[in-house]
Amino acid sequence: QNTALIGITFSPSEDSKTWMSENNSTTEILCDSDHSVAVAYGAAENADQEKPGRLSVLIGPDGKVIKNYQDPDVPTHAETVLADL
């Protein structure tokens, strides 16, 4: 089974690349410059929102959303998602 962790942010791609380098991150981070992804998944109420809310989405191999995690607890989030797999 293939799995992937992808982050999405409003920050410009260059800012994300810098952050990834400074933090030795291997997670792919995509830029949602028009905020459409955040609006579609409920992390933002509209495209004019300055910052998205914290949200994780577990998507199954068939492309369907299995579960949304609104404002996940960072220290326990990975364990929670793994339990839901």
List keywords for this structure.
85 residues, single chain, alpha+beta, globular
Compact description:
With 85 residues, the protein is α+β, with helices and mostly antiparallel strands. The chain is built from 3 helices and 4 strands.
Report on the structure:
- Strand 1 (6-9), helix 1 and strand 2 (28-31) form a beta-alpha-beta unit.
- This protein is globular.
- The protein has a two-stranded parallel sheet. The protein has a two-stranded antiparallel ribbon with strand order 3-4.
- It is built from three helices and four strands; from the N terminus they run E-H-E-H-E-E-H.
- It is of the alpha+beta class and 85 residues long.
- It has helices at 13-22, 36-41, 74-84, and strands at 6-9, 28-31, 55-59, 65-70.
- The mean pLDDT is 90.
- The relative contact order is 0.14.
- The longest helix has 11 residues, at 74-84.
Write the layout of secondary structure elements.
Elements: E1 6-9, H1 13-22, E2 28-31, H2 36-41, E3 55-59, E4 65-70, H3 74-84
Parallel strand pairs: 1-2
Antiparallel strand pairs: 3-4
- What is the N-to-C succession of helices and strands? EHEHEEH
Portion in helices: 25-40%
Shape: globular
- Unreliable runs: none
Radius of gyration: 13 Å
DSSP strand content: 15-25%
Quaternary: single chain
The total of helices stands at 3
Terminal residue distance:
11 Å
Provide the residue-averaged pLDDT. Answer: 90
Q: What class do helices, strands and sheet pairing give? A: alpha+beta
Number of strand segments:
4
Q: Major sheet: order of its strands?
A: 1-2
Could you describe the largest sheet, including whether it forms a barrel?
2 strands, parallel
